[in-house]
Recover the amino acids of this structure.
C-alpha cells in the first residue's frame, strides 16, 4: 500500500455548479463596489443604477468572461473589471429596452422594471450613466494600457450601432415583417451575439493579448453560443410561463415579432439549439481540457429552463 | 533700407473668426468620417445618429478642445478624435434630453428634434449608439496608449452619474423647487460644466500628459467658462426669441425651472457673466500669449447672442 506522502495531489476541480455560484457571488460584490453608493448624490439616480444591475440575472456574460479568462490564467481583478463592464452594458440595454417607447415591459427578473419603479426620465438617465460607468470600470484599475485600450475598443464596437444597438434597431424595424431565417440570424448576431462575444473576448484579454488562432476559436465558440442563446430564449418564450421566466412570457408572439419558433417551428428549434451546442464544443477543441468551463457554459445556455 | 532676406518673418496669426470657421469646417468633416455612413445597415439608425451630430451647433466643445490642444502643440488627428468624442457625447445628451419623458422639446438648432423626425425608439437607440461611438473614436487611432486611456477615464467620468447624467438627474429633481444659488451652481457644474471641462482637458491631453499645475490652471479656466456658459444660456432663454435661438425660448420659465435670471435677476446675471469671463482670463495667465484662443473663446461664450 502506497505511503500517503507518495500520493499524487490532484488539483481540486470544483463541480460546475459550485464554480457558477462562486463567480456569481464574486461578481455581485464586484458590481456593487464598481457602482456609486446608494446614498451618494444624486441618490435617486444611483439607486436606479444599482437596482438595474444588482441582485438579479444569471450573469451569463460574467460567467463567459471568467471561463475565457481562466483559460489564460487571468487575474481575478482583471476578470472582474471586464465582466462588470460587459454586465453594465447588458443591464443598461435592458433598462432602455423595457421603456414604453421600446418593448414597454413592466416586469424584469420578477421585479418591476426600472421605469416602473423610478419613472421614465430616471430610467433613461440611469441607462445612460451605466454605459459611461462600464467604460470607466474598464479603463480604471491595474493592467497593460494597450490591452485595456483594446478592451475599450471591443466593448464600444460590440455595444454600438454595428453591435447591440444596431441589432435593436433591426429588431424594431422587423416587427410585423416576415423575416427569413438569415435575416433573423443577422439581427440576433448583433442584438445579443455581439455582447456575448465581447464577454468571451474581454475575459480572454484579461489574461493576455490573443493570437489570431485563439481569437478565431473563441469567435466561433461565441457565434455558436450567441445564436443558441437566442434560439433557447425563443423556445422558452413560447413554452414557459411568466412566473418561471420572471418576465412576461409569450410576449414575442403577442407583439407579432419573428422568432426561431415562428419561423422554424418548435421541434426544429430544439434540434438547432442542440446542433449549436455541439458547434460550440467543437470550436474550443484546440484548447483541450482547459476549456471545460466554456463547454459547461455552452451546455448551460442550451439546457437552461429560464 | 534692409534687404528683403533680412526681414523677420512673423508667424501668421489667423483672426479669431477665421480660426473658428476653420475648426468648425475641419470638425464637420472629422465628425462625418467618424460616424457610420448613412447608407450602411442599419441605415435608419445611422441616419438618426448623423442627423443628431452633423450640420448644427456652434461646436463650442470642439473649439475648446482645439484651443487647449494648440496650447501644447497637439496633432490635428489627436485633437479631432478628442473633440469628436466630446461632441458625440454632447449630441447624444441633447437627443435624450429632448425626448418626451425628459424636456419634451420639438425644436433643436432650428430643426425638428431626433425623436420628432425618427420616432422615440430610434432616438433612444441613436443616443445610446452615439455614446458608444464616442468611446470608440477616442480609443481608436494613433497615440500613446496611457494617454488615450486617461482620456477614456476622463470622458467616462465627465459624462456619467457624477458628471453630465448626474447633473441632469439633479435638474429633473429640481423642477418647481426653490434652489439656492449654490444648489443651482452644483447642478450646472455637473450638467454642462463637466463636459466642457472634459473638452478642455481632452484637448490638452491630445498634446501631452499634463503637469499638476497645468491641469489646475485649465480646471479653473473650465470651471469659470462652464458656469458662464450656463448663466448666458439663462440670460438668452429669458431675453431672446425662438427664431434667434433655434430652440424654444422662455421654456425654463414656462417649465418652472430655476435659472440664474430667476434667482439673481437679469442685471446681476449679466454682472456675474462678465466676472466669470475675467476669472477665466486670470486662470490661464500662466500660459501667456499661447493661450489667446482660450481667452477669445471665453469672450465668445459670454458675448454670444445665441
Amino acid at each position: 500500500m502506497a505511503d500517503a506522502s507518495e500520493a499524487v495531489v490532484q488539483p481540486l476541480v470544483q463541480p460546475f455548479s459550485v464554480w457558477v455560484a462562486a463567480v456569481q457571488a464574486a461578481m455581485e460584490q464586484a458590481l456593487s463596489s464598481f457602482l456609486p453608493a446608494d446614498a451618494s448624490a444624486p441618490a435617486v439616480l444611483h439607486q436606479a443604477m444599482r437596482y438595474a444591475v444588482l441582485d438579479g440575472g444569471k450573469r451569463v456574460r460574467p460567467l463567459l468572461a471568467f471561463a475565457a479568462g481562466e483559460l489564460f490564467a487571468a487575474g481575478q481583478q482583471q476578470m472582474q473589471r471586464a465582466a462588470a463592464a460587459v454586465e453594465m452594458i447588458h443591464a443598461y440595454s435592458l433598462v432602455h429596452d423595457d421603456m414604453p417607447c421600446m418593448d414597454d415591459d413592466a416586469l424584469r427578473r420578477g421585479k418591476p422594471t426600472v421605469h416602473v419603479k423610478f419613472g421614465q426620465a430616471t430610467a433613461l438617465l440611469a441607462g445612460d450613466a451605466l454605459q459611461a460607468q462600464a467604460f470607466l470600470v474598464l479603463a480604471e484599475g491595474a493592467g497593460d494600457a494597450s490591452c485595456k485600450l483594446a478592451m475599450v475598443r471591443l466593448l464600444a464596437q460590440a455595444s454600438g450601432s454595428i453591435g447591440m444597438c444596431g441589432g435593436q434597431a433591426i429588431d424594431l424595424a422587423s416587427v410585423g415583417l416576415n423575416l427569413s431565417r438569415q435575416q433573423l440570424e443577422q439581427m440576433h448576431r448583433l442584438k445579443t451575439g455581439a455582447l456575448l462575444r465581447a464577454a468571451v473576448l474581454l475575459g480572454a484579454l484579461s489574461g493576455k493579448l490573443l493570437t489570431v488562432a485563439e481569437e478565431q476559436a473563441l469567435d466561433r465558440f461565441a457565434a455558436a453560443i450567441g445564436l443558441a442563446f437566442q434560439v433557447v430564449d425563443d423556445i422558452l418564450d413560447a413554452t414557459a410561463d411568466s412566473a418561471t421566466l420572471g418576465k412576461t412570457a409569450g410576449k414575442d408572439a403577442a407583439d407579432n415579432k419573428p422568432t426561431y419558433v415562428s419561423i422554424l417551428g418548435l421541434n426544429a428549434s430544439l434540434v438547432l439549439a442542440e446542433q449549436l451546442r455541439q458547434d460550440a464544443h467543437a470550436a474550443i477543441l484546440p484548447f483541450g481540457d482547459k476549456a471545460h468551463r466554456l463547454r459547461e457554459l455552452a451546455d448551460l445556455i442550451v439546457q437552461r429552463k429560464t
